[in-house]
Amino acid sequence: MDLKTTYLGLTLEHPLVASASPLTEKLEGFLRLEDGGAAAIVMHSLFEEQVALEEEMLDHYLHYGHESYAEALTYFPRAHEYRLTPERHLDLLSRAKERVSVPIIASLNGISPGGWVEYARLLEEAGADAIELNLYYIPTDPALSGAEVEEVYLSTIRAVVGAVRVPVAVKVGHAFTAFAHFAKRVEGTGAKALVLFNRFYQPDFDLETLSVVPTLSLSRPYEALLRIHWIALLYGRVGLELALTGGVHTGKEAVKGLLAGAQVVMMTSAILERGPGHFRTVLAELKAFMEEKEYASVAEMRGVMSYQKVAEPAALERANYLKVLGSYRLLP
Amino acid sequence: MKPMRSITVDGNEAVARVAYRLSEVIAIYPITPSSPMAELSDEWAARGEPNLFGLVPKVVEMQSEGGAAGALHGALQEGALATTFTASQGLLLMIPDMYKIAGQALPGVIHVAARALATHALSIFGDHQDLYAVRPTGWGILVSDSVQSAQDLAAIAHVVALQASLPVLHAMDGFRTSHEVQKIQPLSDKELKELFPFPALEAFRKRALTPEAPVIRGTAQNPDHYFQNREAINPYYRRFPQAVKEAMNRFAGVTGRRYAPYEYFGHPEAERVVVVMGSASLAVEEAVEYLLKRGEKVGMVRVRLYRPFHLEDFLAAFPKSVRRVAVLDRGKEPGAVGEPLFQEVAAAFALQGGEVPLLVGGRYGLSSKEFTPAMALGVYEGLKGEKPRHGFTIGIQDDVSHTSLPYPEVDFEDPASVRAVFFALGADGTVSANKNTIKIIGEETPLYAQGYFVYDSKKSGSRTISHLRFGPNPLNKPYLIRRANFVGIHQWGFLERFPMLEVAEEGATVLLNSPYPKEEVWDRLPRPVQEEILRKNLKVYVVNAYELARRVGLPGRINVLMQAAFFKLSGVLSEEEAKARIKKAIEKTYGKRGRSVLEKNFQAVELGFQAVEPLPIPGRPTSEKGLVPPMVGDPPPFVKEVLGPIALGLGDVLPVSAFPVDGTYPTGTARYEKRGIAEFVPTWDPEVCVQCGKCVLVCPHAVVRAKVVPEEALSGAPEGFPHRKAMWKELAGEFVLAISPDDCTGCSLCVEVCPAKDKRNPSRKALNLAPRLEVREAMNRHWDFFLSLPETPRAGLKLHAVKDVQLLEPLFEFPGACAGCGETPYLRLLSQLFGDRLIVANATGCSSIYGGNLPTTPWSKNKEGRGPAWANSLFEDNAEFGLGMRLALDKKAEHAKKLLPEFREVLGEDLLARLLAEVGPEGVTERRRDVVLLRERLSGLDDPKARDLLAVADALIPHSVWIVGGDGWAYDIGYGGLDHVLASGANVKVLVLDTEVYSNTGGQASKATGLGAVAKFAMAGKPTPKKDLAFMAMSYGHVYVAQIAMGANDAHTLRAFLEAEAHRGPALLIAYSHCIAHGIDMAKGMDHQKLAERSGYWPLFRYIPGEGLKLDSKPPTLPLRDYLYAENRYRLLLQTHPEEAEAFLEAAEEAVRARWERLERLAGHTAIPAS
Hints:
The complex is a heterodimer. Chain A is an alpha/beta fold. Chain A is 42% helix and 16% strand. By secondary structure, chain B is α/β, with parallel strands linked by helices.
């Protein structure tokens, strides 16, 4: 049985990849993920906005109340140098590269055109095998059209692709008017893969204090369906590798993802819940399925349930919606 | 014409650069104004900078200056090159060890930023009282007069100590030299190596204690031999001056800069000569130059070597022609025939014999009082008279003892220089920008540069004044600029309060940061300002720096903008060059802090150059607005006439007679100084308010107040006075809440803690911020009316309920603490609960500064004239000080009770019995009534015993002594005393305002600092956990101990205060006090307290003797990381030492866990019952 998979030009032992998670905030996390059986690791994102915030906060607090009162002209010692997030992030990445043999994909979330390019280059220099652009952005401005938002995304991708030599993947949310069309345009930027889909923080309301509280719950398996659906729709129709992320908890979702056409299947929530060793469990389930269905390789099963190959492609289109509603009506 | 390479540094840095390189062990402790020398040493050591011998010196913080001196002594015994830095009381604490070190001929060095001593009052400013106090210790004393000489004499001090095998104290003038920024020639390592006496080091090493060749040192001796042994060291002192001369000569050979122990400057046949030491000698030198040009035969002797005082060399410095000598002392020795330097000089001339010149001595410059060349002229003039006055003062008006000499108004400024004075709001960045400007001009141009900075004693809304001089000629001017050709006014609000243009000379340039458009500026200026602009023909330029700073994303930080505007207007450099240099300086300062900050500052430079524009001046005054008086609200004459000028910065004009002899001042004066410093203030919406009292409880400045009053009391209320029916079961009437907009600092803690949200618009609460200028008029009317309303009767209020406590009148109001201070809410609460019978012993530190720094102070009185009586002794002795008060009160009560029965008939049995009975806090009202009766009944008696009884009768009232201080006091310098006082069992209450650092001196680590926190002296993270003071106190069993955090649980805080007060014995409250030195948003201070508790870092508990420990916090639910990394003090380590930070975090988690388990175990057991 051949589990080997290629993704972003990298050869992976199997198609199960660790998606960005807090586990990679420490070197130890990388080691645990590799031990647990991840075929590649996506490092947690370098958030340019957070970088800027950290710089501003540091500057603010080093100045706060200074040169005001004769006995306390400052309140903090002057450090010779500060190792802020980018440096620590890059340092961790290069240390991880020295210790881990599976590929490491660096993830980047920028806010400025300059920031995207600069940090992508730095991540590449630090040893990233590929870069995943995390286009995590909520277009709240009513004056901003969908076309404009897409253009911002595309120009960012083009800029980064032009700036680095390593392959670039693009991770997005699903809220697009015409996602297939957008995916096609991403293909034109030179990016190699599309990662479906980002999960956003969901602001919640605290009813006691009438305030907004951010929440991020771990994914549930049902969330994989949306992703599997879109992978099935896009597979073979855009020149991009497709990666499934969000809702993969068991071999079942992994299998479905691959059948839909995913190049790789990524996991975070399940790993956070069950530990890195869960990769082996899911892999065993995948193998069991392949054995049962007598798939000789991952390549052989990939995309067999995609829009292009499935027996009833219409089921992946609007009809699917009708059928679900119908099935509810039949419930006792 | 200029030195090859120069640096611009202040005196502290100049000295520290030398001391660090020439030391192996550096024992440190913070004290103003010497702290920066210690801080720099710690920073350099943390980054691994080697000393001259290729090793990183061991920099160790001690628990007090006494401790530092002990460590110094020990290091010297073991043959290490050792030094320390200190000032004032710190130096006094070193005296015992100083005698030992000198007696054992050990070559230690102390660098002192000479500072006034605490007598009638504390002062952080410069004079020579501290170094005079150590003159008998046997240390050599070298005194420098400028930043350059401070560096140079620092090196000479280290060299001489080794050469002469005696310790040396090197002093520079506190603030005037320690904090003056000057362009100097640095000493390179190569030069230091050439100077360093390596053979002497070898000899010193051989004297180190070692078991390989053991000796003993520090024996005890008897009458038959101590004396002779004491005299044995005399040859060392005899050869010392020679060692100084040799070192100075060698120094001149190496560097080209020449010094002598005693330096003469003046006419070769001078008749009148002034002897002076320190920075003032530069002012005297200018006066001599002035007089020489006018043909007068005058001269000056500058004393650099004060100890050992070398008679021959000193006398040899004088021209033979000298007839009259005035000795200037920057110190005071009451009761002596003259001040210390005078005594020395007089003795020198007397011992010389022959014809002795006429000698007089006088005092000048105490506590950094200005000393100018014009004042020196006054001294020379005074020497001319028939009978020159001895014991004179110069620079003040002494209308009591009539000691003061007059002096003329003469301008000594160099017309070729740029003299710029900047008035700015503290912390707006102006001072650092000005320091940068000096560096730019000093290091990048051939011009000389000098900067000196005057700071406020308020910690919020304070004013800074920068004095900058640039010019082609040397700028050895140790005094403030009195005639400026550039005046920067960076804070519009100051225009109404301070006469800032007084310093502007005719035709000067004025740069004004205006929040208003150019067209409106003229009409908005107060009339006196307009008149001065017209009279002096000033050229005024405006820029709206606040708006521009907001635009570039640096709100409130106007420094770079104003700096750019200064360069544009001053023309010191071309525009292009100035821009490039400023940007380079910014890159140096901010480059390490990331790209985004850098870019914003670059933008600010461009905007500063673009946006400044000339103000059209119409040629006549148009404004009707006058200046706001410094004291408002019908102040008593003393407040108006004495404290008022001090508040305006005009305290120099007050005569001696204005002041109380013993330093006793009225309380409750802060209420007259309406500083109006907040941009936004809270406003109250009674409809949304739930009357919970949390805002009143957390207000650090007591500007939010509440009462419940009868409805009819509101009949005369001003329009719009907000009120609402009181939501109390037990209280009928109207609930009123008022806020004093002009006392508020705008910290917004109250808004943050307000739990009441408007259900129709949750963005609004019961308290909402509004621009002060828009709401102040109505709010001030409301505030005044609120104050006129009757206090809510105390009887019937539940003191354990926050809701009720808000109604108690605070007797601590409007302290000049930092906006949002975490300490003051506890003090305000203390004053509300027990204020009318409270005596406070206050350790030196933040709380003694915002609590007792003139002009106005916060501890106040109620309508009956009662309130906290407050005193500060020192930093190190506060627990003992408070205990002494308690003992005296008890003894006076005992005395009264002994006398009372003798007046049985006059008093009657009932009253006598009541007065003799023991009462606690609960009986205070009745006891007061009885003491009034006692006074009435004894008042007419012509009986010495009755008068004796009346003199101590107040002690029958159960007054409460609270000992208050910070963690620097309680955990470190005062711990021994605190421990002893707690152990004594005396009925004193101790409130530790625990900010976990020495806040007042700028955030140095104490033993209260948490593991892994970054603080000064703990640059690489505090390596050990916080000391468990509570546990130590609990170990006695009889001490009530509570750990509290108002922001975590206010009801718990209240309860602990009440239980502590009720406990008949010592009580210790350890109060979490968030602090500006934590690197947090102070508006969220209470949230941080909550995080500290929820994470288990700061569990709340009470140990009640006889009952045991009550653990009042629930088990921690928040990861420690979430608390720690919410604060810059911990985050900083992550940004400087990431790997160590992780290790510290794990250790801290373990420490929190261990402590929690220990508390849980203890809480599960009953304590040993109190006997």
